[in-house]
Amino acid sequence: MQEPNPNSKAKRTARVLVLATIAIMAAILTWHNTLRPQASEPVPSGDLVELVPGEAVGDLYRRMVRVPDINTPCPGPLGVALLETEILPPDGWACLRLVNRSEDPGVWRIDMNGISTGYVVFHIVRKTSEQQVLTHLPETAISDRETGTRRLASAPFAVAGGEMIEIWATFPNPGNFQVTTPTLRPELDFDAEMVADAHTYGGLMGASGLLAAFFIAFAALLQTRPARVYALYFGLLLLLIAVQTGYLASVLSLPLGLATGPWTLLIGIIIALVHLRFVAAFVFEALPGHYFALVGRRLHRIALVLLGLSILIMLAVAGVAILTLLDVLTSVDPNVATQILSITVQLSSSAVSGGFALLGALHAIWAGRVLIGERAPGAGLFALGAVMLLGASIMVALGPVLSPVIDIQIAFSVMLFADALVFAAAIVLQTFGLRSQRDNAMEAELAASQEQLRLSETLLAAHQDLDQARRLAETHRTRLAHTSHDLRQPLMSLQLALTEADTAPSALRERLSSGLDYLREVLSESMTDGRPDTAVSGTGTDGSAEPVPLSLLMTNAVRMFGDEARAKGLTLRAVDSELSVRADPVALIRMLSNLVSNAVKYTDKGAVLIGPRRKNGSIAIEVRDSGPGMSAEEVVAIRESYTRGAQAHAADGEGIGLASVEALTRENGLSLTIRSAPGRGTCMAIEGLAAVDEQEEQDAGAAVQALST
């Protein structure tokens, strides 16, 4: 049964994650926009805003006018608009007059539409009373708010039918109040908004928590660097959403200004840096050694440099403002310095966080393009995630424009959540795709290794065959050399016998018969030894041992080499003996012939004596000469093939006789001993011959007698 392809599994998993992402985004945004009431269009009425019970009044800041303080009457249409281009001084005031012309009363709240960093205090002023309904200062904790909830809104206030009220606002830090768009929202609409937020953020945070746990398990399971880095990235995203939505401030009971602004900036920068690392890790995992894998590290360094420059600029501007407030610099208005400080911090924070977000998104898009061009696994989903990340960054940048249409915070959180799912699908696809590629590569490498092993085994077998052939050829060459040496003396004897044939016919016949018989035996043995199976086995004889009379053996040797000895003036004789030994006669003849031949060749004067000796229960055949003798070193040297003593130049020959004797003695279970001394001649003995019993010795003697007659 064929196993399923891991790559197809990864594609199915990625497809499910993408479809789930689209479904979750659509469900959350549809749910939120369905439950979220929309603000009505503003009702223009000069300096007086008419209230209609059940309807909202949006963008209060655009309707308010400036006043010096709360003791000054709220001006009419001739008042200066709050959002005038001129900078509002610290602790400046603004007001707005409203009237409920209907007969029915209504209940409203001032809704800041989420977490706001525009610090403000709102008052409701009536003819006979004044009520502080919203306090939003840097040191204000969520538990200290009038509502006691994360959503920044005022306490509810009622407006009776026909009643006119005034909304007064003071701005302790007016440099950043323009970023908020407060709405006068009916109580029922506000309750619906709270329900929508609770459902949306509850579902979003719950799903994000589960997804974070999934990413941690996912990273531990896959054991890849992109999965580990992205698990950290998504954890930081979850923390950022918790900070921006006020969850961190609620849990830690911190002032909202301390729990949102600085933490949002810090976590946002860390997220951007981690995302650069994630992109670099993803590219490196897919394309090891690719130039783009180093781009992320370089951008990381550039981002750190830009962060340092931004901090220096912020510190420089803040230093000027602080020196002005301390009356060190008198040329700058303190009110202007305060607003410059506030605006600088706000703009610098926005520029740094926005710049980092844009840098990370563009880097991811660039990486996606490279991955698609290289056809890397998961490249399409990675590029989709990068585009979604860029869209989220653009949406935040266009927040003031889009806020009347959608809830920026909700949409941003949903997009980050969906983007996380898309990147997770890309990681899954990449991991399983790369593992499939690596498995295929390993299988191909294994097949190549097996083929290489097969070829190596074939080559080894060929080398072994070659070595076998070389050994066989060397064996044949050695045996032929030995045989050539062994045939030399019988041929010379035949040649001398033929020369004397006319004068001594009986001696000629005897010598011819002896020499030809020996030659036939040697040639027969050489042909047998030349067979491949015999050569490989390493044995040079057929192993047929029989009783051999030593007198016949030694007499034959004297006859064979007698003429050569006489030609050199040497005496060659054999000791009379009735001993017989059990041996291979052919091998024994060859060994003794070689020893006698060497003795005659290397002896210039004197005699050569052949005789047997009993030694340690066995028989030894000795060949003694009166030659120059040899040193111990020369004795060792001549036992090697093709090596002769220092006097070898005085005689002709192949110089391989002793090597042949050495080989034959080993093959027949015998040994060759050499005793020599310079100036005292040499004695060479074939030792280890077994003596025959009495009956065999009598049979051998009879054979000798028959041959003699």
TrEMBL record:
EC number: 2.7.13.3
SMART domains from the UniProt entry: HATPase_c
Gene3D superfamilies for this protein: Histidine kinase-like ATPase, C-terminal domain
InterPro entries the UniProt entry points to: 2C_sensor_his_kinase, HATPase_C_sf, HATPase_dom, His_kinase_dom, HisK_dim/P_sf
Reaction equations catalysed: ATP + protein L-histidine = ADP + protein N-phospho-L-histidine
Keywords: Kinase, Membrane, Phosphoprotein, Transferase, Transmembrane, Transmembrane helix, Two-component regulatory system
Domain Histidine kinase: 482-692
Membrane-traversing stretches: 12-31, 201-222, 229-251, 263-284, 304-326, 346-367, 379-402, 408-429
A GO term for molecular function: phosphorelay sensor kinase activity
Pfam families: HATPase_c
Positions of the UniProt region annotated as Disordered: 528-548
PANTHER family: SENSOR PROTEIN CREC
Protein name per UniProt: histidine kinase
Taxonomic path: Bacteria, Pseudomonadati, Pseudomonadota, Alphaproteobacteria, Rhodobacterales
Gene name tied to this protein: bvgS
